[in-house]
Amino acid sequence: MDVDVVSDGGPTAKGSTGFAGCAVALVLFVVLMAGVAWVLDELVKGLDGYGQLEQTGTGASGSVVEPYGPGASARYEDGLKITVSRPHEESDGTYRFTVTYDNDTGQELLLGGEPTGGADPALEVREGEPLDDDYSHDYFLTWLNEQECAAALTAPLGEGETRSVPVHVEPSRKGIPVTVEVEPADDDFRETAYFLLSLERPGRYRTFA
Predict the structure, then answer these.
(1) For residue 1, what are the CA distances in angstroms to 4, 32, 71?
(2) Beta-strand runs (E) in the chain
(3) Which residues cross the membrane (predicted)?
(4) Could you give the C-alpha distances from 193 to 25, 53, 141, in angstroms and in order?
């Protein structure tokens, strides 16, 4: 005798439906938690100020105590990145390096700087280490194109744009430490990023990081 088997959506069908429902719920939960984490991160940034330097927990922090080394980048929470290249020695004993600004903030930035100099310049290059509170060294540094660098920072930097500022300096002797302070203008607050370079001969380069 032939027997017709009819599926009535029994336990197997219900189990598959329940599993799919749990998977969807799990995905929604993960997405929700990611959204909450993003909101909390943005809230913390907003409270601290988007002009804070990002801290990755590795390497130098860019502070006056832990300055960045040559070739490193200071990254701000609003998306601005500033990189100071390694110095290159010229045949006349002077050195050149570049300070590069990358604007990924989503808006136009006024980097600051006055063609005639100012009390709080957006870019400062000086002899010595960041923690030095006086200039009583037995060496000195001449910033040969200071006015040109200040003028290069007066024009606004558009969103998504990059600007490189070439720096030309002359040390009184080789091997001296050089501090680069970067503090772009900001409507509210922007943390100063410190870089420490050493003007060594090629092949004897030292980094501070």
Answers:
(1) 10, 57, 86
(2) 73-75, 80-84, 88-89, 95-103, 123-127, 141-143, 162-171, 177-182, 193-198
(3) 18-40
(4) 45, 8, 20
Contacts of 198 (CB under 8 A, 6+ apart): 70, 175, 176, 177, 178, 205, 206, 207, 208
Quick check: 177 and 140 in contact, CB under 8 A? no
pLDDT of residue 63: 93
CA separation, residue 53 to residues 28, 62, 82, 133, 164 (Å) = 33, 8, 11, 23, 20
Return the ∠ at Cα 182 (arms to 181 and 188), rounded to 5°.
Answer: 130
CA distance 120 to 174: 28
CA distance 174 to 95: 10
In this structure, what is the dihedral angle of CA atoms 4, 7, 8, 13, given to the nearest 10 degrees?
170
Mean pLDDT over 121-127 rounds to 92
